[in-house]
Amino acid sequence: MKKSLLVLALAAVTAAPSFAMAEAGDIVVRLRATNVSPSESSSLGSTTTAAGLPAAVLYGSPNAELKVGNNTIPEIDFSYYITKNIAAELILAVGTRHDVSITPGTGAVAANLGSVNLLPPTLTAQWHFMPDTMFDPYVGAGAAFVLGMDRSLTAQVGPNALPIRIERSNFGAVLQGGFDINLQDKWLVNFDVKKVWVKTDVTLDAGAGFQKIDNLHIDPWVVSIGIGKKF
To answer: Domain of 200?
Structure first.
C-alpha cells in the first residue's frame, strides 16, 4: 500500500505543470499594451505675457492650464535577473503622441495647440517578493529619459500661428509596482503600473524670439498589461 502511494506521488510530481520560476541570469522579454495618462500641473495663465497681451486676455483666464491627452501604445521590455529576487528592467516603447490643449481655452489663443511625440525609455531596478511561486509581485524604482521627438505645437492667435517649443529632453524619477503570473513553458502574464515625474519648459515665439510661457509637470501614470517569455 505504501509503495502504491509512493508511486502515485511520484507520478503526480512528474505530471505537475512546469512553471516559469525566475533564476539568476534569466532574461525575460515582455510585449505589453501601455496606457500613458499624464497627470499634469500647469501655471500657464498666471505666468505668461506674450505678444504684448496680459495672460487673461491671451488665454481667457489667469487659471488657464496646458492639458496633455492620454494615449495607448505597444511596448517591449527586457528584464535581467541579477538574483532570483533582484531584476533590472529596460522599457522600450514607440513614440507616444499626445494632444496638447488649453483649458478653459476661451481667450485669443485657439484651445487646441496640436500634438507632441514623446519617447520614454525607462530603466528600473525591481525587487521580486515571491519568485518561486506562480504569483510573483514586485516593486521597483528607477529613471526615465523623456525625449521630445516631434514638437508640432502652434498657438493660433487670430490670423497668426505662433510656434511653441517644449524642452527636448528630460530625466524623471520612476516608481513601479506590478506582478507576473508564471505559466508553463517559461511563459508569463504581466500587469505593471508606473508613476513618472517629469517636467518640461514650454516656450513661445511671439515675434521677439522664444520666451518661456510655462513650466509643465507632465507626471504620467503608465499602466501596462501583456505577456512575457523567460530565456
So the answer is: 22-230
